[in-house]
Structure formats: structure tokens, C-alpha cells
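[step 3/7] fold_predict: job queued, chain A
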Amino acid sequence: MNIEARKISFIQEFLQIQNEEIIDLLEKLLKQKKKEQSDKNVKPMSLDQFNAEIDRSLYDSEQGNITKASELKEKWNS
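[step 4/7] structure written:
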């Protein structure tokens, strides 16, 4: 059975669950596993990389290449 068929089978089974406790447990498990997967993909940057990012940010700020938080909020709410 491929992954798509397994997901459909799981969803069908999930939709039949009437026990809220089981749903809570499945939600917690899903969140935990997604976080673990996300954490595996995060790689710390080197000190040189970090300093280069700071230098770039300062340069961008000096050149006026910035976006105000209020502009971002406005775009987000549009």
C-alpha cells in the first residue's frame, strides 16, 4: 500500500472515532512528531555565517532596504 492509500485509510478510520480522548492523543502525537521532524531539519549556523547575516542586515538598514513591521502587518491582514 502506497503512502497516499495509507493516508486515505487512516483518515477514514479517524473519522469513525467517537472517543475524544483518542482524538486528543492523536493530535498530541501528530504535533510532537511534526516538531521532531522540524527540529531535525534545523541546522545551527556558524559564527561566521551569523556575523555575515548581521553585517548584511546593517548594510541593508543603512541603504534603506527595510520593511516596517506595520507594513508587514498590513500585508498580512489584507
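[step 5/7] annotate
The two ends are 43 Å apart (CA to CA).
The helical segments are 3-15, 20-41, 47-62, 69-77.
exit 0
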